[in-house]
Amino acid sequence: MILVTGGAGFIGSNFVLDWLAQSNEPVVNLDKLTYAGNRRNLASLDGDARHVFVQGDIGDSALVARLLAEYRPRAVINFAAESHVDRSIHGADDFIQTNVVGTFHLLEAVRAHWGHLPAAERASFRFLHVSTDEVYGSLAPDAPAFTEDHVYEPNSPYSASKAASDHLVRAWHHTHGLPVLTTNCSNNYGPYHFPEKLIPLMIVNALAGKPLPVYGDGQQVRDWLYVGDHCSAIRRVLEAGRVGETYNVGGWNEQPNLAIVHTICRLLDELRPSAEGSYARLVTHVKDRPGHDRRYAIDARKIERELGWRPAETFETGIRKTVQWYLDHADWVAEVQSGSYRDWVQTQYGAAA
Questions:
Q1: Choosing from 31, 57, 86, 134, which is the catalytic residue?
Q2: pLDDT tens for each residue of 67-79
Q3: Residue 352 located in a structural domain
Q4: Catalytic annotation on 158?
Q5: Other C-beta atoms within 10 Å of 24: how many?
Q6: Domains of the chain: total
Q7: Residue 196 domain-assigned?
Q8: pTM of the predicted protein model
Q9: What's the longest Cα–Cα distance across the chain?
Q10: Residues of 134-165 as b/e, b for ≥16 C-beta within 10 angstroms?
Q11: Residue 134 appears among annotated catalytic residues
């Protein structure tokens, strides 16, 4: 049995689905179901005894303690986080409460549980914390990619809150001996991605004939990682990662945002042509967001060297799968685009929304 937190969100739900597709080991799935958490992501597991869903907060120490005592998981994988930079700029409170305070309470509950396990279970137990490359800050165009030893220089409220959570995890290992693992990933994309992030927003806006808002000149560079590859990396780190270590997980695919948008337009032109002409006509440059990091890049050689992991998808194969998924799941898209979502997009992008 494993306990997954945040398992109804984008990466978490993909991980749960992937885990149960490859293993019969049951999952207890704890998710608060905020705006980005969606039970429908897990609809294929309805009635599956291997999946136990619990709605709740990682900051609820009593609830987490009860789940740990009742199910005695051999590992906790922590995906639970507020993760959208734009939202953190408009209001950081939720990010501090979930990513910092929530992680603290989760660590304390896990530490108390782990401390009372029999020796053999204590030795095999793991706490795997899923984090982001954004904790490392911004890179110059010709700077080497982020390694696990890169100095933390978070530049947004979101990345600062994740950096704080990473430091807490590290401290609970060094001070209390809690057997932790940390992964720092690059930008994920794929199925079930809430359409406020770049790739799903471009897909759903294009299909609706709406503007495709691109911040500034669109030359902000990111490394893109298909979510299925991220899931396989987490499984491998959980299986064989060295306790106390950090592993950077990347897709070996640096591209500027504008190039990503044009790739999506070309795929939609092929797969769902518009009578109005190429979707590229909808690209609209908008005012850049405050403190926008110029470049992120992951050096993922450590996880390859130590654990033999590399991504299976190229960006070309992964983005095609992603666009096709959104074309095939219009009902899911319609459901998540609630009134509150529309209000948020209007607030963030104004006339370009």
A1: 134
A2: 999 999 999 999 9
A3: no
A4: yes
A5: 7
A6: 1
A7: no
A8: 0.93
A9: 67
A10: bbbbbbeeeeebbebebeeebbbbbbbbbbbb
A11: yes
